[in-house]
């Protein structure tokens, strides 16, 4: 006869057994399906079927399909300035979690039309009309693919290249620049997290004690310290309800680069920081001063 049946009443045995089974099932589901929980490629509705085009925002563009080194076809927009693309900076946009690159065309328009920068953007694998399923490893491959495309393009390869990323896109930017620092002249990150495991207690408080199961890490707090020469602009919505502003402040403090700037927006929420007054003026000033050296 077992220890349990000798000393513990049967109803308690049943409770412990059932609880253990449920806990194991929940743990297994969280580990197996966390990519579907983390990467919200299907939101908002229709994001996997419809992607707006730059022409709808008054921008010249080519629609490119890139094949990554692991054989996934991803979609990208290449928006070059007519006549003088080679003389102006290029902004490489990495979008935030939900939606696709088309949802960020209003940002691209500010860079392209108002500030007169070339713009390159992509939908990660599993987002928009790109093939595949999103994972941390996959998005890293995608970001390298779009950088390699730029470095082979006759008009863009010698331009000043600036990575710009919002939220998840900021993590992608930090990772890419940390691995290719000599290819970039600047980096701009907005409302980005230290790592996904450190974000879980805030976003999913009910499973905060299971954060150790998270295999989608995005360790921006480590990668940011590997960037030592590229000027970095940190843009933080101080009213961010999704990523605690303390994450951005710590990224700024951890940064070891020779030149870094901080700009906080008092009324900026996670998705509304981009609409705050002086947002694009701050970016333009940073690029003029630290990238173009004007």
UniProtKB/TrEMBL annotation:
Every Serine aminopeptidase S33 domain range: 89-220
Specify the domain of life of the species encoding this protein. Answer: Eukaryota
Q: Which terms in the GO cellular component ontology are assigned?
A: membrane
Alphabetized, the UniProt keywords read: Hydrolase, Membrane, Transmembrane, Transmembrane helix
UniProt keyword Transmembrane helix, yes or no: yes
Instruction: Give the matching InterPro entries.
Output: AB_hydrolase_fold, Hydrolase_4
- The UniProt transmembrane annotation reads 12-33
Which is an annotated GO molecular function term of this record?
Answer: palmitoyl-(protein) hydrolase activity
A Pfam cross-reference name: Hydrolase_4
What protein name applies here?
Answer: Alpha/Beta hydrolase protein
Q: Which organism is it from?
A: Rhizophagus irregularis (strain DAOM 181602 / DAOM 197198 / MUCL 43194)
Upper lineage ranks? Eukaryota, Fungi, Fungi incertae sedis, Mucoromycota, Glomeromycotina
């Amino acid at each position: 006869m077992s220890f349990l049946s000798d000393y513990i009443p049967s109803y308690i045995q049943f409770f412990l057994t059932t609880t253990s089974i449920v806990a194991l099932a929940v743990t297994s589901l969280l580990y197996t399906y966390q990519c579907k929980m983390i990467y919200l490629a299907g939101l908002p509705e229709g994001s996997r079927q419809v992607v707006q085009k730059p022409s709808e925002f008054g921008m010249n563009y080519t629609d490119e399909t890139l094949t990554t080194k692991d054989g996934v076809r991803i979609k990208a927009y290449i928006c070059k300035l007519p006549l003088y693309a080679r003389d102006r900076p290029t902004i490489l946009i990495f979008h935030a979690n939900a939606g696709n690159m088309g949802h960020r065309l209003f940002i691209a328009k500010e860079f392209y039309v108002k500030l007169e920068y070339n713009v390159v953007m992509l939908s990660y694998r599993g987002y928009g009309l790109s093939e595949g399923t999103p994972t941390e490893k996959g998005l890293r491959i995608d970001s390298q693919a779009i950088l390699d495309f730029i470095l082979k393009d006759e008009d863009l390869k010698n331009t000043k290249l600036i990575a710009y990323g919002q939220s998840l896109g900021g993590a992608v930017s930090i990772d890419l620049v940390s691995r290719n620092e000599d290819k970039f002249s600047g980096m701009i990150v907005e409302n980005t997290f230290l790592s996904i495991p450190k974000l879980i207690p805030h976003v999913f408080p009910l499973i905060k004690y299971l954060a150790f199961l998270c295999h989608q890490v995005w360790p921006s707090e480590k990668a940011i310290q590997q960037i030592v020469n590229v000027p970095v602009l940190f843009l933080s919505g101080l009213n961010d309800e999704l990523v605690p502003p303390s994450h951005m402040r710590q990224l700024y403090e951890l940064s070891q680069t020779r030149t870094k700037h901080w700009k906080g927006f008092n009324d900026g929420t996670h998705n509304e920081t981009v609409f705050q007054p002086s947002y694009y003026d701050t970016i333009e000033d940073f690029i003029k001063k630290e990238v173009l050296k004007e």
